[in-house]
Design goal:
Blueprint (H helix, E strand, L loop, with lengths): L19 H9 L31 E6 L3 H16 L3 E2 L8 E6 L4 H20 L4 E6 H6 L1 H6 L5 E3 L7 H13 L10 E3 L20 E5 L1 E2 L10 H5 L3 E2 L2 H13 L4 E5 L7 E2 L2 E2 H9 L6 E5 L8 H9 L6 E3 L7 H7 L5 H14 L4 E8 L6 H14 L3 E6 L7 H5 L6 H25 L4 E9 L6 E6 L4 E5 L8 E9 L3 E7 L2
Parallel strand pairs: 1-2, 1-3, 3-4, 4-5, 5-6, 7-10, 10-13, 14-15, 15-16, 19-21
Antiparallel strand pairs: 8-9, 11-12, 17-18, 17-20, 18-19, 20-21
Helix pairs in contact: 9-10, 13-15
Bound molecules: 5'-deoxyadenosine (5AD).
The site of 5'-deoxyadenosine has 12 residues, from β15.
């Protein structure tokens, strides 16, 4: 679910005088400190692109992204903030003076991967001592001081609500460097306050050109699932105003994007002044020139009739829903605090399939959650077999410090049992996905052409409305076209076919 992309959009390019309230907010946002005394007093933090002080010491910044699509979108935001203040983002690490690692904390292995990567970056820093290494995102927020114990060579630690401070932090680090203050002799910059009003709505992300653009419509999460670290590292839920989002989508279309993916931790709990997620979907679907809109990830408890109606009736809204189940057992769902029962989920799926007959469904599953019995696991297995998802992301439960489960529920399912259960559902899901794909042979699917196939320069690849990768000979098509492809064969996860006349 990853990648990085480009465009300049300005919500507001006019210079504005900063209001006292914003100054107060800026001060709250400035937990930056530094042994060498810089900066003791809060500095002006750019609130609008036009306000941004230009860097006198521009640096080349390489941003490396781990984790979910929201992190990809945050990296685009960071690129926007940095570029606006005069820095330059680069696509090769060898060209960089600054490396920012945008991290994920969702499972332990995500954090382990980053620690290993940081060790590798430390080797690079030994060869290039002025290299600035920053850790941003969820893991920065989650591990805080412990990250600095594990990686004491890190210069900058910044959580998801503090990215406005990046230029100031870099500026200070650069000034230290120029004053020959060794990185060893000072504390790193920390920006770890969560700010429930920060939505970056005025910041113009920088995306790579392409067909699909990711657009954050909401930040944070209020759901408090017991297994999940997100509310603790991304803070409370906040939605970006609908009017701004519709304007953004129009700008994205004007830039050449054909598809927009709306992003939020529980994207369908979006609300703005009486408008809900269904209203937003409708409004975005109406944007002139947009071929497709998708969204991820919704929460089943917020799958309202308004959302279903927008999906059913707007031709632009793709008929694919990623609907995280997590567990097919009501007792496990209760322990997870998912706020729905297995029966309610089944009813929702039935309703979706009745209203949108060809809807493709995908899901997230966690096996081995605290206290999960064989019977509870079997309920998940049966539910997956009954619903027959097009695809699924499947995980072993990974205890996260700070979550409600960590505080109240023992992580008592043995690792081997977690492994066996995971294996069982992966095998089931592979079979279901293969059967669904095989059933598509002989059918015609509509594909948005995204790019050249990695394996064959004579072929293009793209996604169907249901988000299936499809590969076909280029013939008379070009990137950005919507073509009809008759499927003639499949691999485990791909449809293969030929373009036919509409
Ligand atoms: N352990 C395992 N999987 C998790 N997820 C979230 N938290 C955990 C955890 N502690 C999974 C959920 C979620 C997806 C993004 O990651 O399935 O939907």
């Amino acid at each position: 679910m990853l990648g990085i992309f480009s465009l300049w959009t300005y919500r507001n390019t006019t210079k504005t005088t900063r209001m006292p309230k914003e100054t107060m907010k800026d001060q709250r946002l400035l937990p930056l400190y530094n042994k060498s005394g810089l900066p003791e007093t809060p500095q002006q933090i750019p609130k609008k692109p036009g306000d941004t002080p230009q860097q006198t010491h521009p640096r080349r910044v390489y941003i490396e992204t781990y984790g979910c699509q929201m992190n990809v979108s945050d990296s685009e935001l960071m690129a926007g903030i940095l570029t606006q203040s005069g820095h330059q983002t680069v696509t090769h690490i060898d060209d960089a003076d600054v490396v920012l690692v945008n991290t994920c904390a969702i499972r332990e292995n995500a954090e382990t991967k980053v620690i290993n990567r940081l060790q590798h970056l430390n080797h690079r820093k030994r060869r290039q001592p002025e290299l600035i290494i920053g850790v941003c995102g969820c893991m920065a927020q989650h591990l805080r001081d412990r990250l600095l114990e594990a990686a004491p060579y890190v210069d900058l630690v910044m959580g998801p609500d503090a990215y406005r401070n990046l230029p100031i932090a870099l500026d200070s680090l650069i000034r230290d460097e120029e004053a020959h203050i060794s990185l060893k002799d000072r504390d790193p910059f920390l920006g770890l306050r969560l700010d429930k009003t920060e939505d970056y709505a005025d910041i113009a992300p920088i995306r790579k050109d392409g067909i699909r653009a990711w657009l954050t419509i909401q930040r944070g999460c209020d759901k408090m699932c017991t297994f999940c670290i997100v509310p603790f590292v991304r803070g409370r839920e906040r939605s970006i105003p609908l009017k701004l989002l519709v304007e953004d989508v129009q700008k994205l279309v004007d830039q050449g994007f054909k598809e927009v993916v709306l992003l939020g931790q529980t994207v369908n709990s979006y609300h703005d002044n009486g408008s809900d997620f269904g209203d937003l979907l409708f409004a975005v679907g109406e944007v002139n020139g947009l071929e497709r809109v998708r969204f991820t990830s919704p929460h089943p408890a917020d799958a309202t009739d308004s959302m279903i109606e927008a999906m059913a009736s707007s031709a632009t809204v793709c008929k694919h829903l990623h609907l995280p189940l997590q567990s097919g057992s009501t007792t496990v769902l209760e322990r997870m605090r998912r706020t729905y029962t297995a029966e309610e989920y089944r009813t929702l799926v039935a309703k979706l399939r009745e209203r949108i007959p060809n809807i493709a469904l995908s899901t997230d599953i966690i096996v081995g959650f605290c206290g999960e019995t064989d019977e509870e696991f079997e309920q998940t297995y049966r539910m997956m077999a009954d619903i027959r998802y097009d695809s699924a992301f499947m995980f072993k439960y990974s205890e996260r410090e700070g979550t409600l489960a960590h505080k109240a529920l023992p992580d008592d399912v043995p690792e081997t049992v977690k492994g066996q259960r995971l294996k069982q559902i992966i095998e089931l899901q592979e079979q279901i996905a293969a059967d669904i794909n095989t059933a598509a042979i002989g059918r015609t699917v509509t594909v948005l052409v995204e790019g050249e196939s990695r394996r064959d320069a004579d072929k293009y690849h793209g996604k169907t409305d249901s988000f299936k990768t499809t590969v076909f000979p280029k013939v008379d098509s070009k990137i950005g076209d919507v073509v009809n492809v008759c499927v003639d064969s499949t691999t485990a996860h791909t449809l293969i076919g030929q373009i036919i006349d509409g």
